[in-house]
Each structure stands twice: as structure tokens, then as C-alpha cells.
Amino acid sequence: MPELEEKNKNDYRRLFIFSIAIMVIFAVLGLRLFTLQVLQASAYTSAANNNQLRIISQPARRGNIYDANMVELATSKPVFCISISTPDVTDKKALAEKLATLLDDPEITPESILEAINNNARSYETVLITRLNYEEGVEKVAILEENRADLGGVLVSEEPMRYYPNGSLAGHVIGTVGLIGESDLNLVNEGNYLINDWLGKTGLESYYENYMDENGQQVGLKGQYGIMKIEVNSRNKFVSTQSTSDAVAGNSLVLTLDAKVQAAMEESLASTIKTISKTRPKCQAGSAVLLDVKTGGIIAIASYPTMDPNDFAEGLSQEQTKYYWDENTKPTFNRAISGAYPPGSTFKPVTALAGLIGDVYDINTYVNCCVSNWIQPRARCSAEHGSVNLIKAMQVSCNTFFQEIGYRAGIDLLYDTASALGLGSKTGIDLPGEVSGTLANPEWKAKNFTGWEATWRNYDTYYMSMGQGYNQYTPLQLANYTAAIANDGVRMVPYLVESILDCEGNVVWENELTVGSQVDCDIEDIELVQRAMAAVAEPGGVAYGLFGNYGVKVAVKTGTAQTGLASDDKSKDYHGVFIAYAPADDPQVAFACVIEYGYHGSTSAAYVCKAVFNEYFGFNDLSAEKENTQSTENIEADFAE
Amino acid sequence: MWKKRMLNNLDWPFVGLIFVLLAASLVVLSSASQNIILSDPYYYVKKQALWMVLGIVVAAITAYFSYQTFPRWAKFAYIFMILILVGVFFVPSQSGVQRWYDLGFMDFQPSELSKIITIVAFACFLKKRQAKMHLWSTFFLSLLFLGLPLVLIILEPDLGTGLVFIALWIGMMWVAGFPTKRMIIILLILFLLVGLIFVDLYIGTDGFTHSLEEGDLPIPLPFSNYQIMRLIIFVNPGMDPLKSGYQIIQSEVAIGSGGMLGKGYGQGSQVQGNFLPTHHTDFIFAVIGEEFGLLGCFVFLGTYLLLLLRAVRIALDAKDMLGTLIVAGVITMFAFQILVNVGMTTGIMPVTGLPLPLFTYGGTSMLVSMCALGLIINVSLRRREILF
What we know:
The structure holds two protein chains of two kinds.
Chain A (H helix, E strand, L loop, with lengths): L1 H38 L1 H10 L2 E6 L6 E2 L5 E13 L7 H12 L6 H9 L8 E7 H13 L7 E10 L7 H4 L2 E3 L5 H5 L8 E3 L2 H5 L18 E7 L5 E8 L6 E4 L3 H21 L6 E7 L5 E7 L4 H6 L3 H7 L10 H4 L9 H10 L9 E3 L16 E3 L1 H7 L2 H11 L1 H10 L21 H7 L9 H8 L9 H12 L3 E3 L4 E5 L5 E4 L4 E4 L4 H13 L8 H4 L7 E8 L11 E9 L6 E7 L9 H13 L4 H19 L1
Parallel strand pairs in A: 2-10
Antiparallel strand pairs in A: 1-8, 2-3, 3-4, 3-5, 6-7, 8-9, 10-16, 11-12, 11-21, 13-14, 15-18, 16-17, 19-20, 20-21
Chain B lengths: L11 H22 L9 H22 L5 H18 L13 E2 L4 E2 L1 H19 L7 H20 L3 H18 L3 H25 L20 H11 L8 H15 L10 H4 L11 H34 L3 H25 L17 H19 L7
Antiparallel strand pairs in B: 1-2
Helix pairs in contact in B: 1-2, 1-11, 2-13, 3-4, 3-5, 4-5, 4-6, 4-12, 4-13, 5-6, 6-12, 9-11, 11-12, 12-13
């Protein structure tokens, strides 16, 4: 059988090569082990010895946030951290049961403790079981101390935790902190953060987390954690201290915000919305801004529904999660900078100014507002106002007049004027999440629409002149623009942080005032617009009832804006918009407010304005309070009609 | 079928080496796992011993029924295997991975069992086509034969086990007589592919300096994100010192600091101080390296090499080609898993979940390894009568 032998020989050869391949695999592994264990043994031995060094980190105290009068808006309070050092535990199950009983918290069960211990991949690091706030913690910690003997491996330490003494006051701008998440782990690797560290997530907490000054110096809230290197044995038992570096506390922010005005704004925003929602259930949200006309410093800025940053620092309960992530009301959404709304008639001062800049009319120009002038594509007016000039037209918010002026000025001039007043672009406030809104012109329309809709038509200019159409601005932009009108056309960049203090109270950074943009016009033009806005609160103007007999003269424009949403009823669903500045003769502050589905600005947002001015100008004595309740009654009366 | 005199054929050196490895496995595990459940330091050892006893029973049963009857049901076994591999996709996924059936008393991994079934079925297939090894049809059918389970397993996703099938293809095709030239070309192509993947990753991550974002790769790869991440970390473990990169570094430190003679049984600071996670499962070889040093590693590798070379002997003496191929398949599987697992703990292979046969703690792996060794004993029992 020679053939079979030939075959066998072939099998032999192949199996021989097969075994060589196997030997090569083992040789490669052997060679690698030789490299590791002989050639590089000393390097790895010292690396292993270094593993006996533990780095104990001390979190830095986060800087505080103060209002303009040094009222604490955000601070840190001590909390007790209850954690477990796994290698010191002898009986996990017994410990878990004992600890759960002593802590007496329905959310901490023996199972959850066991799970936390078992899920800890690096068992030489301690496992955090819970944080107890100081007041209730003292008692529980005492109980734990009494049972020390049965709690081998349980550690109690004190740590600072973020705390907001005023709860939801200015919650949106202050922002939230949270534990470092998966997505932020690169921060840990870069060495600036600890694995269990806190991080500013939204608002000022996030914007000023690691703020750099002009020289690249860190002046943020964060601070630098301290490190203590200690030597331990393999059972994690302390042997000696090797070196220490102390924690450096973070810097504190001093805001331009006035907590009292802020509180007045939030209260009246909430009560106004609640009252309106009784008759108009869609009315659930709104936002308002008050800022300094000459500096751009923000005195109050609010968004409703409110949010309390404490809830996020403590961890959201199920109920809170439901509230904060409600798709309709979106309480975490800062409407003042992230919500864009059609301005409605509050845009009319822009139209007026554009017309004056273009010299297409003057104070003596009269337009006849009557039914025969309301031919399509022009929109109709709220009433036949007869022959009106700028002052009268502003007083009664005459659509016919402003459509004519806007048409004469033309879209380019309208666009340039609005743009110079800061509408449709980010104001540059020191907060994350600001949106630019929309300022439309033919190029914008060509870019965003197709076919015949892409062409700018006459009616687009008409609509724009009275604040309808495509334009959408944030409440902050509206306030900023109002301030620019009051400030003779100079728009200051709005800001919240006046200065930054180090932990000893020294000023390490100060805000520099910045001009954001400027309207190129004659001073007479802008003075005329100012006069027209002041006239709205004078006899014959729609705001006379509200500000006619007021402590200071107020310049005003109201707005009733079509929402532009297909799902809304065009004849019923309007946003109430209101802008104002005061005193009209020597402007200090400018105000803007939008109330979603608030209908007329004069019967919704206007009340917020009055409450805020009352607080700011100090009219909040007894008589003013009486007036306040009266105004609430007024709202109810308005809707009872 | 079963004749008493076959017991005389039992390959005592082979069986002896198995018991030496099993005993060593328990010794290593008892050091590796004593710090995991402190109230019951021998918890894992006891359970593993139980699995070993079961494994010995499984090996005995596997050895009992003659492998020459296997071709009769090989086809059904293969179809059954495909069914359970597909079926696992309908089990609710555990953290995005679908690998297990929950059998109540154990988590059953069909991919582990499929290695055994594939070895036997593929051996039967090659045996039938032995005279046609040079035909292209054999080549393409063989690719299909192993490609099907391979794709299903990679989709689970379990890249490590999937790669075993590529190794099986190479080892068994070679022993079955696949033309040498073609084998060389195929090996070259495989090397080029691996090289290409790393060049691709090199460009996509700017020299392995950051993790991958969508669209970074010049050529998209059909792997999941965490698989790609493991490849990146393999080249640059320092990039991710907190997670799997951390494991690689700690494992190398453990083995390297073991030096020539090791730190002594139960004295490994890396292991006992819990610096190295999963040191009783995937990274158990690091315990050998740290506590027994280079000497212990060489004894371990030497014993295993002896076992596999003894198995080659059995393959040579097998009564027929079917026996030779089954044994060659099992040897390939063991050698590949040892290469990948020990390579991973020493940092020359990417991290995959491939167990170290007989040493890694775990029921499925133990039973499957013992079953595979039972196959070799099966073949040895029915070896060719040697004519003097």
C-alpha cells in the first residue's frame, strides 16, 4: 500500500508543522514574559510599590454667588458622607443590613448597599452610600458612632455640598451642579477633577466654573482640590503620610442682580400667569428681564415655571423628575435667553426709528387709518383711528400707520435698524444656552424657504413693520433693545457678573462695560421715538390706566403677538408682550416681558412690569400693595368680559 | 462499540497532565479569589471544584461514545448550533450584549458550546472532502461552514470567541491537506487585513491619542464602539487608565513585578490589594505571574505545551483522518485561547473576554474545555493498533 504510506507521510509533515506553530505561540508568550519579568522587572516593581500609595483628595470649597447687595444666592453647606471601605468589611451582608437599619431611609435597602459594594470595580476606593445634610445628619452620625463596633469598614466624612438658600430664586441663571458623568471623564483624566467631583452643569455655575481672566488666570467658582498622599498596606490600612497639598477654595461671584427685585419679578410673573390660566388654560409660562440702561447690568431676569437648583444638587426625586422634564412646560428651559417669541407691536418703535433714519416721514406726517385703507395685502387695524401721526399711532398702536412707514422705509432699512438694536443676534450675556432668535430679510427667506415662498413680498414688509411674520426674539433681546432706545441708540452688552472675589474677599476680576452695537442716527430721531413711547403712558395711550399716575414717568410699548404656531387659534391665542423703560425723562432701567398665551400685553405682562418698577423705585409701601391687589382684580375683570 | 480492552489504550500521560493542570488551577484560584468574598474566602474554589467534578463526568461521557459515529448526527448538531446562536438574539439583552441563556442554575453561553460542535462537524465535513481539498468548492464551502457561526457570534457581540473560528479554520484546513501555497497567501491576506485595521485606527485617532468619533475613520469598521475602543487602548493603554486600559496596566505591573521567582503564594500585592480587577476570571494568569514569577509561568506554559504536544501524538496515532482532525481542532482552540488570554494579560493582545482554559473561573468554560479534552481521549481510546 504505497499510496497510503505516501498519505501518512504527508500527514506527518503537516502535523509536524502544526506542532511547530504551537511551539512558536508558546515561545512568543515565554519571550514576552521574560521581557516583563526579567528585563523590565525593576520598573514594574516600583510601579507596584507606588500602588501602595493612596491619594486622598480633599474637595475644594466652591465659590459663593452673591447678588449686588451681597445676599447669598449660592453657597456650600457641610454634609456627611457615609461610605464603605470594602477591604475592611468582614461580612458584607450583615453590614448592609445593619447599616440600612441604622440609616432608616426608605431608598437605602440592604440590597442597594450590597449592589453598590459589588459594583465597585476598584475595591480599594471607598463606595459612597449616601449624603446626609447637616441638621438631620448629626443625629444619625451619632447613632452610627454608637454602633461603631458592628460597622467595620463604614467611614463618615464631611464634605461641602452646594446649597441655594433662596431656593428657586433666580434658579435658571444661577444654574445647577451635578456629579461628573461619563461624558466628563476626560476632565478627570486631565487632572482637574476628582472622580466623585461636582461640576457646574447649567447657568452661571457652568459659565464661571473655570472662568479665565484676560491673563489666562483661573478665577472660576471651581477651586483646586487638595491632595494627601498616604502609604497603606495591601489591606488599605494607613501606614504613614507622605505629602500634602491643601485645597484652594473657589472664587465667588458678585452679580448685578438685586434679589429683592428678582423676587418681586418672579412673584408677579407667577401670580399673573396663574390668574390668566384660570380663563386661558394654555397660559402656563413666561419670562421677564430688567436691566440697567447705561451699563447693561441685569437687575432681574426670570423664567416661569421656576426651577430650584437644590433639587438637582440633592438628586431629583421621581416627582421632581416628572416636573422638570415635562415636555409642555419645560421648567428647566431658561425662556429669557433660550425662548424666542414674536415681538408683536413691541417692534413698532424699530419701524418708527427706521422711518426717521430714512427720512421717509416726520412728526407732521399723517396717515389715515380707515377701513378703505385696509385692503389686502395690508393687515387690518384694531380700530379706525382716523388721521394719525407718530405720537398718536404709538399711543394706540395703529397698524395702518406703521405698515405705511415700514413700507416707505423698506425692508433693508428695517433690517439694519433692528440689527443695530441687537435684535436677531445673541446679546453676548455671560450665560450658556443663549439663542439668537430670528431677524428676517429677503436673504433669510430665500435661504429658509423654497419655490414661490422663497421670495420676499410686500406683505412680508407690512407684517414685519408691526412685529408679525417671521421675526422672533428672546425676552433678553427685547429688554436689551428697549434699553438701547432709552440709551440714545447705544446698546450695552448685558451681563450678570459685576466682579469676582477670591476666598479672602479681594476683587480678582471686574466686568468691563462693553458697547454691543450702536444705531447710526441723529439724536432728534431717537428722541422722537422716546417721546412717542412715553406718550403711550400719557392720556390717550393704552398704558395710561396703568402708568398715568405713577411715581416716575414710564415709556412703554405693548404687544399682542400672534404665536405663529399652526396649532394655535389665530383669533384667540396671542402671547402678551410688554416693553418699557423708566424714568422716561432720565432712563435708568429697561424692562421686557413675554407671557405665553397671555393675550394682550397690556393686560398680562404689564402687571409684571408694574410690580417690578414698584420694587425697583421703592413704591412698595402699603398703598402700592393695595394697587397690586387691585391690578390682580383688574386682570380678572379683563377676562370676565 | 465500547470494549473493555480499550481502557488499555488510555493515554495516561495525557490524562495525568490534565489532572496536574486542574489541581494547579484550584491552587491558583484559591489565592486569586480569597479576597473577593471575605466572609467565605473559598467560595469560588468550592464552586470551581464542583464544576471540575462535573467536567470530569462530561469528559468521560464524551470519551465513551465512539467518535466514528459522530458523522451520523453531525449535521443535526450543526443545525441545532445555528438555532441556539440565532435564538440568543431573542433573549432580553444584558447591558447591550446578547450572549447568554439563563438556565436557572447557570448562565449558558451558546458560543462556547458552538466551538465544540463546530470542531466535530467541521472535521466530519473535511473528512468527507478529503480527496477534494484542492478544489475551490471545498474552499468556499469551508468558509461558509465556519463563517456562519463566526458572524452570528461577532454580532452578539463577542469578537474574541468569533476569532477562535478563524483559528479553527486555519488549523483544521491545514491538517486536512489544504494546498500550502494557498494557505500562505491566506495568512498573508489576514496579516494585511489586521495591519490595515490598525493603520485605519491610527489615522482615525491621530496616532491613538483620543477615542473615536463618528466619521473619524477613513475606512469604517464593522465593529461595535467598545470593540474599537479596546483596540485603541491596546495600543495606548495610558489613554484610559480608569477602565480597560487600567486593567492592562495593572496586569502588566502585576506580572512584571513578580520577577523571576514571584512574590510567593498569596503574597501578590497587586492581586491581594485588589488593584487588578477580574483577577479570578479573565486576568487570572496575572496571579500566576505575580505570585510564582517567571519560573511559575514557564512551568505553567511548559505543562500546557506538553499536554498539547501529547495531543499531537494522539492525532498522529488516530485510527482515521476524522480522529486526527477532531484532535487538531481541539488543540487549535486551546492554543489560540492561551495565546489570546496570556497575550492580553501581558499586553501583546487586545482585551477580549476569552477565558484561559481550565483556569478562568466559570462553569461554561470549564465544561466546554473538559468536553473538548474528552474528545481527544475519545480518539486516543480508539487509536490505531500499532504493529510491531
